Amino acid sequence: MFSIAYQMLGTVSDAEDMVQDTFLALSRVPSERITHWKAYLCKSLTNRCLDRLKSASSQREQYIGPWLPEPIVTEAGPEEVTLQHDHLSLAYLHLLERLSPIERIAFVLREALGLDYPQIAEMMGKTTANCRKLVSRAKGKMEQKITTKAPGPNRETLPFFKQFLDALYKGDAQQLTHLLAEEPSLYSDGGGKARAALRPLFGQQRITAFLLGINNKMTKPFNVTLVNVNGQPGILKQSDDGIDWIMTCHWENHQIKDLYFYLNPDKMKHIFSSYEVTGTTITIQ
Fold first, then answer.
1. What is the architecture, at CATH level 2, of domain 2-62+99-141?
2. SS3 (DSSP) at 155
3. Distance between CA atoms of 165 and 76, rounded to whole angstroms?
């Protein structure tokens, strides 16, 4: 249930709250009134998520800079396979932000849960035809397909990330450009609480310049931790004050297609309270 709520909302804390509220409400309903438990729970969760998403949409419209879904961080390792699902990748969740609240709910019910349209109509209190239109419209807005499945961090990805960090620290513009795909994009989420690009960046030249700007702020040496971020390779930089930033990417053929930087502390405060952040530590000398 958390997975579904997280896809619908894009925030960890809200998803946890919705699941908890759903079960609390269930405890107050006489069991004899429920004939199909799974359907009842799903409908109850869907209604709560839709209400929360509607209220959150206006807040996200006023958000300073790009708004990214809250990351789920786990230890980098071959055993971390539960989050390597396309529907939980940040690239996929970021695409969901293109949809209206009602389109997003219908789309997740169809694509993630695999429900048929009559079932979706029952849960959303709409006609079957209307739900078909909602999902069709959502698919049209999400014309970008996530087709390449990037593996979680392991021995094969470690050299890739160290190569990226070495180039980043040395300010090697040529190597950074080489590591970027032909048409890359970069999203940095600062939320007005940390310095970040206020708009998405596109193209090798602009992204390389942004990364070189990060290089100017780095002190030598520094450590980063190789982690899973929603099942995709990621790097976490932390200090005595907490997490400084998180970087993850969607990459194709050992080149970075999309870069995601988290700098807003509010987007990372749930990580230590929910997960033990461990993983391979890389020291950049």
1. Up-down Bundle (1.20)
2. coil
3. 17
CB atoms within 10 A of CB 17: 15
Q: How confident is the model at residue 214 (pLDDT cuts 50, 70, 90)?
A: confident
Amino acid at 258: D
Residue 166 tokens, joined: 């070495």
Name the amino acid, one letter, at 146.
I
**For residues 285 and 283, what is the distance between their CA atoms, to the nearest angstrom?**
6
Q: Exposure string (b/e) for 67-93, b if CB count within 10 Å is 16 or more?
A: bbbbbbbbbbbeebeebbeebbbbbbb
Do residues 50 and 10 touch, judged by C-beta distance below 8 A? Answer: no
Residue 272: which pLDDT band, with cuts at 50, 70 and 90?
A: low
CA distances from 92 to 19, 101, 199, 203 (A): 22, 16, 19, 20
Handedness of CA 194, 95, 50, 16 (dihedral sign): negative
The whole-angstrom separation of Cα 180 and Cα 258 is 9
CA distance 69 to 47: 20
Measured distance CA(62)–CA(192) in Å, rounded? 11
pTM attached to this predicted model? 0.84
Report domain extents, the chain: 2-62+99-141, 157-284
Enter the CATH code of domain 157-284: 3.10.450.50
* Distance from the Cα of residue 191 to its chain's centroid: 15
E strand intervals along 135-267? 180-189, 201-202, 222-229, 232-239, 242-252, 255-262
DSSP string, 105-135: HHHHHHHTS---HHHHHHHHTS-HHHHHHHH
